[in-house]
User: Fold these one by one.
Assistant:
Number 1:
Amino acid sequence: MLIKPIPRPMLATYWTTWAGPVPVSDIPYYDTILLAFATPGGATGSVTFSQNRESRSDFISDIQSCRAAGRLVLLSVGGAGSYFSLASTSNANAFIASVESIMQNVTGQLDGIDWEIEGGTLYPTQMIYIAQALRAKFPGFQFTFPPAPHNSTQMSVAKQLNQAGTLDVCSPQFYDLSGLSTDQEKVDNAISRMKNNWIPAMGGDASKCGLGFGLQPCPGETMTLSATVTVWKTLVQKYPALRGAFSWEVSRDKSTGYSFATTMTDAHA
């Protein structure tokens, strides 16, 4: 099954092993599913991914049915408290081998990697090496990155990945922020950072940029749904090629009848 580019516009969500609705293929509206999380398999750079919500065969069938229906499924690596180091080529090779093993034994073919590495140093040289190696093995393999919008180090990494041609979508996550009290402050912050920082960091190519939104209830500075729509509509007027949005995470959206997904689908129209 061929790997397709991430849709334009993208509507993505995180499916978590501890709370994601099952099966993956039954998630409505979303065209890109991010499996969270593949976590460290030791100190070697490898990662491991498992789930106990379906049998192995049902889970593989589920993911491949999702892909056959035209949606993308990416493996999100890292997550809070699960930093792993890619400080060497050896670690990078261990990462590549472990991703292949996950596809062979847990998920079946996937469409790419979401770099959700938190809590430690990022190594763009090795991330570029990994992307190039996986694309050589799996043509069209996609790579996404959801950085903290205020983090200049992550911005530098995103620039390097993009310049190397190994980043498909960079979607700063506008939640878990501090110092923003009102919806208007949150809206202004998101619009300003995208215009002044993140779209320029992607060489001015808005098609490489998405936005990440937390869904209530969510810890930290989470926008209301109406504020989210304001951010999107304001930015897309200036940048019609803006790639899309993702939500953290799908079980929260399901609990509201998929209000985020349906609202953003209308906003994308």
Number 2:
Amino acid sequence: MLDIRPNSKTNQFRRARVELLNTLIAEVLAQKASCSIIDIGGTLDFWRTWKDEIDWSRVSVTCANLNPSHLDEGQETALAKRITADACDLNGIKDNAFDIAFSNSVIEHVGSWRNMVAMANEVRRVAPKYLLQTPYFWFPIEPHARTPFIHWLPQSWTYRLVMTRTNGYWPRQDNVSGAVAVVQSAQLVDFRQMQALFPDADVKRERFLGLTKSLIAVRH
């Protein structure tokens, strides 16, 4: 059975992303003694899940998240530290302050295209290397709603579906305002949009059964 749980070590997609991240880490460590990573919109739980895949003697991680409750349900650990910061405006972080910027399934949650551009600019600014993943619009199953084709429907239909039942991580809403907010909480992008957001990156396709499931922008 395919494991797509976000914090499972047998999630093959996330494992592949960590392996790709390790190639960037190796590039940094080939040039200097240590590697600093900023995980934009990330959680400490992610790094606890993959702690055995990282050389923590030479790597440090800072998780930057606007909502402290999203950072972690537990306590800060020695593996990574956390700061409260807006992915679209990393105020106070200097250009190339980190060696690698990393972001996993975040940019689709920042809202409008203008906000996506702002976040992409920050990712590109704070580190010379980066790896950013986001779900692909044309994959038939919406990853947050866990429902086929729902993201291809007009919003006037989708919010009504959310008012009738729970859809994956989208809880049922009993009013229009809540339903629209849930539907707008994730805005998926296609390949050309990803290239426009990250023109200096190699945009890779993460595939499942031959279909593109996610897009990954990598700058070496």
Number 3:
Amino acid sequence: MNHVYKNLEVTGTSPISSDEAVRIAIAKASRTVRNMDWFQVMDTRGVMAADKIAHWQVTVKIGFRLED
């Protein structure tokens, strides 16, 4: 069977880690988007406070299959 995909780009944030920021972004998108099959990390940024990492921001592209 052939599939057609659409891409969605979202940014998740976390004070703990970049991995958690990705998980948060995917979890939030999954509330309203069906048939998500893959993700790709597009950009990783951080916010610093007192010379330490205070917050991670990770932008991911999520691919989901369009329904027939």
